[in-house]
UniProtKB/TrEMBL annotation:
Pathway: Cofactor biosynthesis; tetrahydrofolate biosynthesis; 7,8-dihydrofolate from 2-amino-4-hydroxy-6-hydroxymethyl-7,8-dihydropteridine diphosphate and 4-aminobenzoate: step 1/2. It is an enzyme of class 2 (transferase). Its EC number is 2.5.1.15. GO terms for cellular component: cytosol. It catalyses: (7,8-dihydropterin-6-yl)methyl diphosphate + 4-aminobenzoate = 7,8-dihydropteroate + diphosphate. Its cofactor is Mg(2+). The keyword Cytoplasm does not apply. It holds the Pfam family Pterin_bind. Keywords: Folate biosynthesis, Magnesium, Metal-binding, Transferase. InterPro entries: DHP_synth-like, DHP_synth_dom, Dihydropteroate_synth-like_sf, Pterin-binding_dom. This is dihydropteroate synthase. One of its GO terms (biological process) is tetrahydrofolate biosynthetic process. GO terms for molecular function: dihydropteroate synthase activity; metal ion binding.
Length: 251
């Protein structure tokens, strides 16, 4: 199971906004993750926390492209966390080797064809709407069945656009248009998602459903979640800290 390290170059991300919001601090944090054995660094320049405002295309790219270019020769795999096809193109040109799109191609009609043309792995997350609206969209009769059905729609759309099965990864989107009990229901039935036959990424790190008074206070629970998922057959976990999760998987 892979460990994807989160690098938010933003002032407003829910768990670490502002900590690495400069070229120097972001590059330093990336090298720390490399030392700790990270498998993939996921670099994003736009917060997708509930209620977050979108930033311009220019602002997003000014945050991430210089850092990706700086890290391109380190040998570590770099993922670009973006909903914009233009940012994905610029990031891959700078050295990124994966695209992580929390909208699963719904936010930008050019994204799926762009991912297909770039021929890099594409992560399609379950998504129902922008951050401003996501909390109001957490309405399900059967969350596992509905998330699977909506992911299957994105899988079909990706394949229709030319994304190959070998390059498609899926993510149920914990915390995105989902309440705490929805997230736990998905975790309890993660095997149903694995059985779809695509690599599965889980991103639950430091999210509110884990409890605790603050994101940092949820770190122990995040590590326990990684332990729980370690035998589930998923492809990877997306986490804020690398070393303790790598150690948990080794144990």
């Amino acid at each position: 199971m892979l460990v994807m390290g989160i690098l938010n170059i933003t002032p407003d991300s829910f768990a670490d906004g502002g900590r690495y919001n400069s070229f120097e601090t972001a590059v330093q944090r990336a090298h720390e993750m490399i030392t700790e054995g990270v498998d993939i660094i996921d670099i994003g320049g736009e917060s997708t926390r509930p209620g977050a405002d979108r930033v311009s295309e220019e602002e997003e790219q000014s945050r991430v492209i210089p850092v990706i270019s700086e890290l391109a020769n380190t040998g570590v795999r770099i993922s670009i966390d973006t909903m914009r096809a233009s940012t994905a193109r610029a990031a891959v040109a700078a050295g990124a080797t994966l695209i992580n799109d929390v909208s699963g191609g719904l936010a930008d009609p050019e994204m799926l064809q762009t991912a297909a043309a770039l021929k890099v792995p594409y992560i399609a997350m379950h998504w129902r709407g922008q951050s401003k609206d996501m909390n109001s969209l957490a309405n399900y009769e059967n969350v596992v069945r509905e998330v699977i059905s909506e992911l299957q729609e994105r899988i079909s759309a990706a394949h229709d656009a030319g994304v190959t099965k070998e390059n498609l990864i899926i993510d149920p989107g914990l915390g995105f248009a989902k309440d705490a009990h929805h997230n736990w229901e998905i975790i309890d039935h993660v095997g149903d998602l694995v059985s779809l036959g695509y690599p599965l990424l889980i991103g639950g790190s430091r999210k509110r459903f884990l409890g605790g008074d603050s994101p940092d206070g949820r770190e122990a629970a995040s590590i326990e979640l990684t332990k729980r998922l370690s035998t589930s057959g998923i492809w990877g976990v997306r986490v804020h800290s690398v070393k303790p999760h790598k150690e948990a998987l080794m144990v």
